[in-house]
UniProtKB/TrEMBL annotation:
Protein name from the UniProt record: UDP-N-acetylglucosamine 2-epimerase (Non-hydrolyzing)
Key words, A-Z: Isomerase
Keyword Transport: no
A GO term for molecular function: UDP-N-acetylglucosamine 2-epimerase activity
Family per similarity comment: Belongs to the UDP-N-acetylglucosamine 2-epimerase family.
Start and end residues of each UDP-N-acetylglucosamine 2-epimerase domain: 31-354
Keyword Zinc: no
Amino acid sequence: MSATITHVLGARPNFVKAAPVIRALAALGHSQRVVHTGQHYDERMSDVFFVQLGLPEPDINLGVGSGTQATQTADVLVGMEREFLDNPPSLVVLYGDVNSTVGASLAGAKLGVPLAHVEAGLRSFDNTMPEEINRRLTDQLCDLLFCTSPEALGHLAREGRPDAAMHLVGNPMIDTLVANLDKFDAAAARAAHGLGDGRYVVATLHRPANVDSPARAAELVRALHEVAAEVDVIIPLHPRGRATLSAAGLLDSERIHVVEPLGYIEFMSLVRGATAIVTDSGGVQEETTLLRVPCLTLRPNTERPITITSGSNRLVTNEELAAAVLKACDDGPYAGELPPLWDGQAGPRIARIITTWLAAR
Ligand code: UD1
Ligand code: UDP
């Protein structure tokens, strides 16, 4: 087995989480390989993150692309098996909860390849979300479990995972945010989107439960129109919901500004200057916590409860949304405590643990 550490990246949130881990491992002199599964492939969903976050060019792109849950996961499984046979790694690092993560974990486990999971132990306890299934299975198969939040350790212990495998390390998504903070220019973002001097809300929406069915999309659009009656709303729209939300009349309001998905720096600049965020994203719940921007999450649950207890996040329904946005505008920025170890040092902690673990094998 070679001494190369292989990182498996597939979708937008993976890129943001992997950048600080790859950087920290490089600083310790490790040989690394980056596999892009190709789950996300548009320039705005993939390439822009490699450029802006200084990620190394992928050594290989499996070109998996879009598909049903089964075909996408199966294509990752087959592609990753070939990759691990051709380039046996000393350790594979997996990120988050996307289909690329679970496909690669299954391929690696069946070949006896050691596996590490960054963002282990988060649980929404909602198996209607593909991500919850991906998280649970991945955590069962990994040898090293890197946790962003203390309650994750308890979830993993209850699922029978050994204490020695678990490490509370902080949050690499926050590392990326801290490392780029001085590049987030709220005034430039306002100017770029013609937002003037007034208040504005940023919305991001892509969960199947919110955007896949025309009926749910129509309810969501009604709620966003209620918000737009009070304040400008800018939506960097994920490709997933584009057709249903547009068909449901999303653009029938002058104060709703729909734009293409943004690069990381442009997106976080916009978030930094917003009065509030409306989202169903996992990462955005965390980023708004650190930036102290009020976050209203359009979901019945979250695998990231720490963003509610130590953060600006609140779960809301479509019906509650407009009133919650107005209240957030009145209340202003979150001023409470932040989650432990969200200090920008998760990448170096992970790199040190991996180094010790590999040396002991
Ligand atoms: C995936 C993840 C989700 C994550 C999200 C981040 C799973 C099960 N879901 O959801 O957890 O929050 O990424 O953004 O892994 N598409 C494009 N261009 C692209 C990529 C996708 O147009 O570059 C469109 C395609 O129509 C595709 C749809 O978006 O069918 C959904 O893409 P997919 O990767 O299957 O799931 P996401 O909704 O992006
Ligand atoms: N993001 C971005 N541009 C956008 C929307 C999101 O750069 O237009 C970033 C942001 O940092 C976010 C991350 O991409 O946390 C992951 O986003 P997404 O909501 O797609 O995935 P999730 O975290 O829900 O899995």
